User: Which sequence fits this backbone?
């Protein structure tokens, strides 16, 4: 995002390559033995909603021929694939040994499945139809997520949702990017308008505070 966010009236943005190389080296140091990344202190394992951010960043700079630490991207890509079943459902985490896919085929997985399938689509490793499937599921489940989250307590953690409401909000960013790449349809147009309204309301609410 460095180049994209650089002010338009500044003619010569800085070369981000040194910073990218430094960040890539740091990512390699904290990469777990299985090849992923996690936000917890654990000997091995991976949280794909964390690892995806690193893998996509590394992949983008690899496309621009920036020299990265050896094998860090290949190992990250392999672990991200391990976090997804053949249908594209994405687990919350795995511990580096056995990945239990079936228990994560639930509404709570829709947001992170949009996130990871969108990257695979951009990388040419998954089709748009699979991404669209999880986009539709995310919005099909969202009203119930919202109801549970606004009720307070741990309602969103209860079956069949099994996820903190904050992760749904975290998914908005990735859902918005994915909508930008999906073909037009009445449903996708409705999703875009809904997401825009949510962002506008959130900004207005923060301004009042």
Assistant:
């Amino acid at each position: 995002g460095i180049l994209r966010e650089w002010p338009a009236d500044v003619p010569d943005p800085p070369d981000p390559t040194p910073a990218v190389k430094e960040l890539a080296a740091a990512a390699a140091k904290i990469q777990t033995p299985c090849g992923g990344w996690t936000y917890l202190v654990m000997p091995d394992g991976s949280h794909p909603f964390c690892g995806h951010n690193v893998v996509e960043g590394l992949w983008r700079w690899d496309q621009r021929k920036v020299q990265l630490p050896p094998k860090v991207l290949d190992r990250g890509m392999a672990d991200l694939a391990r976090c997804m079943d053949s249908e594209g459902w994405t687990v919350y985490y795995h511990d580096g040994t056995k990945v239990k896919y079936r228990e994560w085929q639930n509404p709570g997985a829709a947001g992170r499945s949009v996130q990871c399938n969108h990257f695979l689509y951009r990388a040419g490793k998954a089709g748009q139809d699979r991404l669209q499937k999880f986009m539709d599921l995310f919005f099909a489940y969202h009203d119930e997520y919202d109801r549970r989250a606004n009720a307070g307590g741990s309602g969103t953690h209860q079956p069949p949702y099994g996820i903190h409401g904050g992760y749904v909000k975290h998914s908005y960013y990735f859902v918005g990017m994915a909508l930008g790449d999906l073909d037009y349809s009445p449903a996708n147009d409705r999703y875009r308008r809904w997401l825009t309204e949510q962002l506008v309301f959130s900004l207005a609410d923060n301004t009042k505070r």
User: Anything to note?
Assistant: DSSP finds eight helices and no strands in the chain. The two ends are 28 Å apart (CA to CA). The helical segments are 2-5, 17-30, 48-63, 72-82, 110-122, 128-150, 165-181, 186-208.
